[in-house]
Design goal:
Blueprint lengths: L31 E8 L11 E6 L10 E3 L2 H5 L2 E2 L1 H7 L6
Antiparallel strand pairs: 1-2, 1-4, 2-3
Length: 94
């Protein structure tokens, strides 16, 4: 065997040893619904909002109602999908 491969060294593993002894658990995955339509309904918005957006989830087909958002950047961030995130927690929501 090649002397530079990890398997040629006795006691070597394919994973690096945990140097700090504790690994913070990862947060559960969030599934996001992305915008499908954005517009201005011409009415008075809540303080700080400038547009309305409709969101849909590509994974399950869930569609939100019209939600007021602050700006275009806020719309592009998406919103959590109610169906997918609920099912990920273990509930039986449909």
């Amino acid at each position: 065997m090649d002397r530079h491969t990890p398997s040629s060294q006795p006691g070597a593993s394919s994973r690096q040893a945990d140097l700090f002894g504790y690994r913070k658990p990862r947060a559960p995955r969030r599934y996001l619904a992305h915008m499908s339509d954005v517009g201005d309904h011409g009415c008075i918005y809540e303080q700080g909002n400038t547009c309305v957006a409709l969101f849909s989830c590509a994974r399950c087909g869930w569609e939100s109602g019209w939600l007021e958002r602050r700006n275009k950047t806020h719309v592009l961030q998406g919103v959590p999908c109610m169906k997918c995130n609920d099912q990920a927690k273990g509930s039986l929501a449909d």
